[in-house]
Amino acid sequence: MSEGTHAPTSHAIDNAKLQQFVGKMLGDLGGAASVPLVRMGDTLGLYRILYTHGPMTCAQLAQQAKVHERYLLEWLSHQAASDYLAYDPDSGQFSLPPEQAMVFAVEDSPVYMMGAFDLMAAQTEVQPKVQERFKNGGGFAWGDQASCLFCATARFFRPGYQNNLLSQWLPALDGVVAKLKAGADVADVGCGHGWSTVLMAKAFPNSRFVGYDYHDGSIVDARKHAEAHGVAGNTRFEVATAKEIPDAAFDLVAFFDCLHDMGDPAGVASQVRRSLKPDGTWLVVEPMAGDRLEDNLNPVGRLFYAASTMLCVPTSLAQEVGAAFGAQAGEAKLRGAITAGGFGSVRRATETPFNMILEARL
Q: What are the b/e assignments for 208-234, b being 16+ CB within 10 Å?
């Protein structure tokens, strides 16, 4: 036993609790070990092939996917042991059940999670940087994050936008959909790769949309997405911070999962207030969270606190003020920043298990 390490002798060990916790850790480690395998299954098209063609033997799938059969057998065995794939010992076939397909293969599914696996890889890659900041308290800019983070973030959030933005979030805002149909000016701040902007632009061709993000590479990709989806005529994308958006220009300003990442949320709120027309609306979509730590000790909070440690807090601390709200800021803290910026009305318009949707009015 190393110096400074002592067996726990002051308290009796409850073996039942110990075994229960060890079992939990085996599950956690199994999930962590699955991240690279799931990402390979996605990149190699294995899930898509099984989804399209149905049950297959290892040899059949290897031939279809053009991969090495021995490697594939080990991968398939892991997937079956994880309950990601089903295995029929009589036929020797592996299959992707319809429920699992919603997670691994159906990109427009509300529970498509391949982007989440990509985010897990990004968090692992950035560990040394975050670990160093634990010592000095500094941050680092979004653009200095892991190389795969930006695509992973876009991929992770897109299913939520696809399934909620047009059908639930915008209709929950007072009078906004009517304005968008007639023709409105909209800013999507912190737009990333622009999926939220593109969805709105396609649905409301009479309106004009501009996406802002301070990460140059994301704006390049957003412009490509707008071209590919035929909305370049009513969208544009610019490199800018939230405090650089123009005054008195917009009927709607939207922040999707980004206010808590900003260094000065209250200062940003002040600029949003100035950027809105007198009857404008600020849409703020944020991760679902209670106002107290004990409210967030659940599976969703567990994931969001991890992302907050590795991604959100370092990003905020690299900016002016460095408020570092974190991904589990809670409605009270968000509401405080919004009202400090001069908004007179803030309400929770709607919610999902993963997001709260706030509407702020002048």
A: bbbbbbbbeebbebbbebbeeeebbeb
Q: How far is CA 227 from CA 1, 74, 287, in A?
A: 62, 41, 29
Round to the nearest angstrom and report the end-to-end CA distance of the chain. Answer: 63
Does the pTM surpass 0.90? The reply is yes
Long-range contacts of 330-337 (CB under 8 A, 24+ apart): 330/289, 330/290, 330/291, 330/292, 330/295, 330/296, 331/289, 331/291, 331/356, 331/358, 332/291, 333/291, 334/259, 334/260, 334/265, 334/284, 334/286, 334/358, 336/266, 337/259, 337/265, 337/266, 337/268, 337/269
Rounded Cα–Cα distance for residues 272 and 244 (Å): 10
Sheet containing 86-88, strands listed edge to edge, beginning at the edge strand earlier in sequence: 56-57, 93-95, 86-88
pLDDT of the chain, 362 residues: tens digit per residue: 455 555 555 579 999 999 999 999 999 999 999 999 999 999 999 999 999 999 999 999 999 999 999 999 999 999 999 999 999 999 999 999 999 999 999 999 999 999 999 999 999 999 999 999 999 999 998 888 877 788 999 999 999 999 999 999 999 999 999 999 999 999 999 999 999 999 999 999 999 999 999 999 999 999 999 999 999 999 999 999 999 999 989 999 999 999 999 999 999 999 999 999 999 999 999 999 999 999 999 999 999 999 999 999 999 999 999 999 999 999 999 999 999 999 999 999 999 999 999 999 99
Q: How far apart are CA 346 and CA 282, in angstroms?
A: 9
Cβ contacts of 221 within 8 Å, gap of 6 or more: 150, 151, 154, 193, 194
